[in-house]
Specification:
The protein is mostly helical and 259 residues long. It contains 9 helices and no strands. The protein has one domain (3-251).
Length: 259
């Protein structure tokens, strides 16, 4: 295969994948209303997506805040602005690092699990069996996961934001001898509500995006267990890339709307 044909094939595959995710999004949007019998599925997915991912998200947020505060304090001390480490850490975490890192870490874990579960159902023809029984597999298998992710991701992001700010406080208080009251006071002065809401808005979109990618790759799995492994691996990469790329456009959108 020549380089030009390889590039053409990759572009074609990317177009097919993007179109497939888009079509799945439309189908999910048409089936968002769940019957009461399916509500327990949403609560089950909230437990799987949220509670079981807290340790990963909070640990990453804690050390991210600590590293960010350490780097900021060392460099800002050159200009005598060490007292303003708090706002730098807060704005970075609330607007960018909190939602993005949470989406990549938790999303990669969640989406790969969804792909593995739905992919195994696909290769063992369980989804075909649901179709033959007249069951709406979109409403039963995908919508509960999407609703749970849209609920859980903002909540985890809020907790991760708080843990990141706490980690930053530990560093500036213990390592740089900055007063804790001054740290929180400067944050409350410079950080406004829209900074916090920007990150929460991003986390809602990330939750939906991560879930849709995981579900589509699971439903598109072919080739038995070997194909299932390829789909799961691809999901982790696509989730990370999807979050990073969409973060740029969401940032542009929020800056246009609120600044």
């Amino acid at each position: 295969m020549t380089s030009s044909s390889y590039v053409t094939a990759q572009i074609r595959n990317a177009a097919v994948w993007s179109g497939g995710v888009g079509l799945l999004t439309v189908r999910v949007a048409k089936n968002l209303a769940l019957p009461p019998a399916y509500v327990w599925l949403v609560s089950r997915e909230i437990d799987i997506i949220g509670i079981r991912s807290l340790v990963v998200a909070l640990t990453a947020a804690l050390f991210t805040g600590m590293v960010l505060a350490l780097q900021s304090a060392v460099n800002m001390a050159r200009f005598g602005a060490e007292n303003y480490v708090g706002p730098v850490v807060a704005l970075s975490i609330l607007r960018e690092l909190g939602p993005v890192l949470t989406a990549i870490l938790v999303g990669g874990k969640v989406a790969s699990g969804i792909t593995a579960e739905l992919g195994s159902m696909k290769v063992t023809e369980q989804i075909d069996a649901l179709r033959s029984l007249g069951v709406n597999y979109i409403k039963k298998l995908i919508v509960p996961r999407l609703l749970a992710a849209v609920i859980v991701f903002p909540l985890i992001t809020v907790l991760a934001d708080g843990m990141g700010l706490f980690g930053g406080m530990l560093i500036v208080v213990i390592e740089r001898n900055v007063d804790a009251y001054l740290y929180w006071n400067t944050i409350s002065y410079w950080v406004v509500l829209k900074d916090f809401l920007t990150g929460i808005g991003k986390s809602v979109v990330f939750g939906a995006l991560v879930t849709l990618i995981g579900c589509y790759n699971g439903l598109a799995t072919e080739g038995g267990t070997e194909g299932l492994g390829r789909s799961t691996t691809a999901t982790v990469v696509q989730v990370a890339m999807g979050v990073i790329v969409s973060d740029f456009f969401l940032t542009k959108l929020f800056l246009f709307l609120f600044w």
